[in-house]
Amino acid sequence: MGKVNQFTADDHKIVTSAVSLAEKATDGEIVTIVTGQSDHYGDVAWALSGLVALTALLVVSLFPEIYLNMIDWFAGGWSGVTALPYWALFVFAAMKFFGTRLILIWKPLLFLLIPSPIKKARVRRRAVTLFRVSTDHRTVGRTGILLYLSMREHRAEIVADEAIAANVEPAVWGDAMIAMIDLVRAGTPGAGMAEAVRQMGLVLAEHFPKTDQNPNELPDRLIEL
Predict the structure, then answer these.
(1) For a 10 Å CB count at each end of the chain, is N or C smaller?
(2) Do 25 and 136 belong to one domain?
C-alpha cells in the first residue's frame, strides 16, 4: 500500500541473512514484510471532513449574528436578512466538508489526525491478512511466524502460526519489537528488523529446536510491499 524508500539493497541483505541464520537453529519459519503504510484511511478522511462540517454548523447555530453581519457586509448593508437561509447553510457546510477533504489529501496532516487506536487496528488487520496469505498453514509443523513493519504508522506486528501461538505467550515478543522500533527510529530499519529476527530466532530455537524433518518451506528474503 505504499513503497518504502528507507530500505536499501543492503537492508534487504541484512534482514535476509538474519532470517537464514536464525532458522539454522529452529524449525520455526520467519517471514519478514515491510510496507510504507497499512491502509489508505480514506474512510477516516471522509469522517473527519463530516465532523468539521457538523462542527461548523454547530458554531453557526450558536453564533448566527456573526454570519448575518458577514452577509450584510457583503451586501453593502442592504441585505435585509434576519435569519440565515437554508441554502446558505448548505453551501457553508459543503464548503467546509469538501475543503477539509481536499486538505486531507496531504498525507502528513491526515496521519497526524488519525487516532492512535485506529492506526493500531489497521496495522494489525493488515498484518493478519498478510500472515494468512504468506505464512498460515504453509509449514508442516505450523511453525510459521510473520514479522510485519508498517513505516508510516511507526508500528509493527508479530503474528504466529498455531503451534507457536500455543507455546509462546505474545508478551515474549516484546523485547524483539522494542529493539526493532528503537533502531527504526534511529534511521536503521534494516538493522532493526534483523535484530528483531535474531531475538525471535532465540525464542523459536528454545521451543522448536532444529530437526531433520522440517525443511525450509518459506522464503528467507525480506518482502517489501
Answers:
(1) N
(2) yes
- Given a cut of 50, whether residue 207 has pLDDT beyond it is yes
C-alpha span between 124 and 182 (Å, rounded) = 19
Q: In this predicted structure, what is the pLDDT of residue 1?
A: 52
Range of the domain at 27: 9-40+116-224
Residue 104 sits in the same domain as residue 136 = no
Q: How far apart are the first and last CA of the chain?
A: 7
For 113, list phi and psi in degrees, rounded to 5: -90, -15
Residues 103 and 120 in one domain: no
Residue 106 reports pLDDT greater than 70 = yes
Alpha helices per DSSP H over 76-115? 86-103, 107-113
Same domain, yes or no, for 109 and 125?
no
Sheet holding 144-150, edge to edge: 155-160, 144-150, 29-35, 223-224
List of residues 6+ apart from 106 with CB closer than 8 A: none
142: left (phi over 0), alpha (psi -120 to 50) or beta: left
Determine the 3-state secondary structure of 61 from DSSP.
Answer: helix
Is residue 4 situated within a structural domain?
no
Per-residue pLDDT tens over the stretch 167-184: 999 899 999 999 999 999
